[in-house]
Design a protein that fits this description.
The protein has 184 residues and is of the alpha+beta class. The chain has eight helices and seven strands, in the order αβααββααβββαβαα. The protein folds into two domains: 127 residues, Alpha-Beta Plaits (2-Layer Sandwich); 40 residues, no CATH class.
Length: 184
């Protein structure tokens, strides 16, 4: 494996491992002065080419483009955080490190949580007119629904977005030597 693709496992954010499978996205923010025309911008035609290569790579990785004028945002459904993180890391192979640092301002990986279910219990009119309760509950009880909601919300307390630009901008990842591993 090439030196440019080695990364320590300690740099793996916990949300990648612990968030459930679902919809994940990658958002790339570009330096706008690079793309703007002179005199305010740098008018770099190469920046548009880098933007196009990154977009094509993310499309080929089965991510779907979400329209956003200020950044490149792609989503992928039915995937895991680790798979999306790998796509984000290998994005460095699409452009050179110099081009990447010049054009890309920030890179985010984010998780889109599933909507939390609302109370789903049915009330029906009690047929007994002398009953103190005019309604009867059919379906799951409110306690069961609230328990399920609490479980869903507990999963959603994990971070849903984090910046990966620090990891992506490292020019060379180093692996610890054998002596360093034994001393830990």
């Amino acid at each position: 494996m090439s030196d440019s693709f080695r990364f320590p496992l300690s740099s793996l954010p916990p949300a990648i491992v612990f968030n459930p499978p679902g919809t994940y996205g990658i958002q790339i923010q570009l330096y706008t002065p690079v793309l703007d025309d002179l005199p305010a911008g740098w008018s770099m035609e190469k920046a548009a080419e880098v933007y196009k290569r990154i977009s094509n790579y993310l499309r080929m990785s089965a991510l779907t483009r979400v329209d956003d004028q200020t950044s490149i945002t792609f989503l992928r459904r039915y995937t895991t955080g680790l798979r999306t993180w790998t796509i984000l890391l290998f994005m460095r192979s699409v452009v050179s490190p110099d081009e990447f640092q010049t054009v890309v301002k920030d890179a985010h990986l984010f998780y889109v949580p599933e909507p939390v279910p609302t109370l789903v219990c049915r009330l029906s009119v009690n047929p007994d007119p002398g009953s103190p309760n005019p309604f009867t509950v059919t379906g799951p009880s409110p306690e069961e629904v609230l328990r399920d909601q609490a479980r869903t919300r507990a999963m959603q307390t994990l971070p849903t977005s984090f910046s990966a630009i620090g990891v992506l901008r490292m020019s060379r990842y180093t692996q610890p030597q054998m002596g360093q591993i034994n001393n830990i």
